[in-house]
Batch of 2 targets.
Target 1
Amino acid sequence: MSWKRNLVVIWLSQFLSIMGFAFALPFAPYFIQELGVSDPSELTMWIAAFAAATPLSLAIFSPIWGALADRYGRRAMLMRANFAGWIVMSMMGGVQSVQALILLRFLQGVFTGTMTAAQALVASTAPEERSGLALGALSAAVFSGGMVGSFLGGVCSYYLGYRAAFFASGFLLLASGLLVLFGTREHFVRPLPAHHAPLEDIRHMLRGASLPILLLIMAIAFVRQFDSAYVPLLVQEIHGKLEGVSLWSGFLAASCGIAGLLAGVILGRLSDRYPPARIGQLSAFGAALLMIPQGLAQGFLLLFAARFGMVFWSGGLDPVFQIWLSRVTPPKRHGMVFGWAATARSLGWMASPIVAAAVVSQLGIRWIFFIGGVMFLALIPGISLVVHHALRRGHSAK
């Protein structure tokens, strides 16, 4: 099977997988209210816990799954992530308490992680000179799946309820897993046993350019997720009531999916021609400027326009550094390093809603957008430092 055909099937699988997660998860703040949480400060706390639970478990288990991917194959790990997501998301639809919802959210991070598994599989099968196109296309699958899932999930939540959205989410993840099972192939040669391999991999990562890029990925994840958990509450504030708000949130998330789709294709393709660091700095600057009008928005027109632009530019950050990471890492270590990349990203995701919750509690929802804009600007010198370190280590920034 050619790498292009494999990429198409994995793309479709990721489209369905992310569509499944987006079908229900963006509306969790409203589902938590439906489960009986109405006090604003308590709601802020539970939203932060929901947003941080999966990244916490992902940070712990992603390197383990990454090491197993290098040992037993990336395709098997992608199937594991999808089928586990099917079970967990379906169970979320039947919870009767917010505590049970948070527990399942934690288990989601333990057993899922479809994007990391898909990235490792694509990176190991695509030619190096086409890695930017391949990983950029995979990023586009994430945003396009999120776009369709959020839109249809919002409609489903409005007419059928939030529980039905979770059950539909599980069905989509099941379909994604079956697509990987029957539609992909991996020519994987199991490596010979090497008891020293884990320590050797870690030493290689510490000596090379991988570690600074991983730290940068963590910072990017923190900044990109800083406002995400509380955007539904801003939509609810502008809408003025809980009834019907899932439709507006779905429309907003769908428009952001279009922006992310364009970013994945355009900026991922450009990263094959221009240094990823330069694209990353431009993306951070564009995203910073467009955070401010979101905090000022009093209506949906300004909010939709500003968030569309912000997601486009911020959507160029993660893929270009995944591509760079792939290029500075030997192919035999792709599973390991992408597992550590997932951990780095997850640590940023975990810390972000906790810090944002403190900001919301003290200053209000809108301040997370102003502070988030400053954080995007702070990424620009951070990228320069990583480039300087890579050049000192003898790695190209291209």
Target 2
Amino acid sequence: MIKSEYKNIKIDGLACCVPKNKSRTEEFNDKFGADKIEKLIKMTGVIEKRNSVEKQTASDLAYVAADKLLSSRGVDRSKIGALIFVTETPDYVSPSSAFVLQYRLGLEHECICFDINLGCSGFVSGFNTLAALMTTSSIEYGLLLFGDTMTKKLSPDDRSIYLLLGDAGGALLLKKEETASTIKCVGQSDGDKYNLAIIPAGGFRNPNANPERVLADDGNVRGPYDFYMDGGNIFFYSTSNVVKLLREYLDEEHTTPDDYDALVLHQANEYILKNFSKKSKFPMEKVPESIQYFGNTTGSCIPLTMVTEWGGKEAKSLRLIMCGFGIGLSIGIVDSNIDTDVIMPLIESDDYYTEGV
């Protein structure tokens, strides 16, 4: 296990933004069949999700969250020394959307900016990366932005995934502070399973694929430019490899679920959350959920769950263990304290960057 420890860094702000447009799973009874939709709701837990408007991108959602967060926290933007944007749905193939966000947010040219192409483990992996960068530099404040608009990469005739994924974005602010408690991170990558969650076409490996959607072996209609996920193998990975790594970490730290106020998981689906709770011995009352009303929002799942659970509510000091897992395949764990008064209430927006169109 590769473990990183960061001293003198704390979470100084968190905000999430979702589109205003909601779609309810039951609206698809006529298309997919009421019985199948009922089973889908029971399995995934998704009652409704959010869908971005046509020209709205992941960076738009992240921008709104970051702009409001920096203003709310009263942070001098000239002190932001790094901006990392984690997304699978960037504005452009090139350049990185982080540069667009730097410009829109009015950050200094000295600010280090880059994208990370990660999905469901993106928040915790980005957290680890930003904390490492701050630890080895003179950076006082760092911004981790995240978001995806995966609904734009789904076949509307693929019932295995279309009703599960939703759109969201957000911002995490890290600050150097001598009295901050230690933050610990671990991670793991399983590249031999890279094709279990994939958009086959659109990159340079398969740039000219026929975009036609056809009936796939699993009975769903999709094309090579649509997102595909092998749900069965992802489920096995989530409830075996991911739980195993979490247990190993707890054993090495000599901690148990009793030492944490909550386990904030990637919101893969309701069934996985319950199985993960059982196998990890974290009771469900310590596993907050947001999947019912937002679906699986990939890298935004963990922070969106935190915003839903604690944003704008009674201030508490919590010790959280955050665990993201998915595309890659990849796992990331962050063990950190947080004062919930730095978590903003949920933001809704359909705004988009007109200059970028």
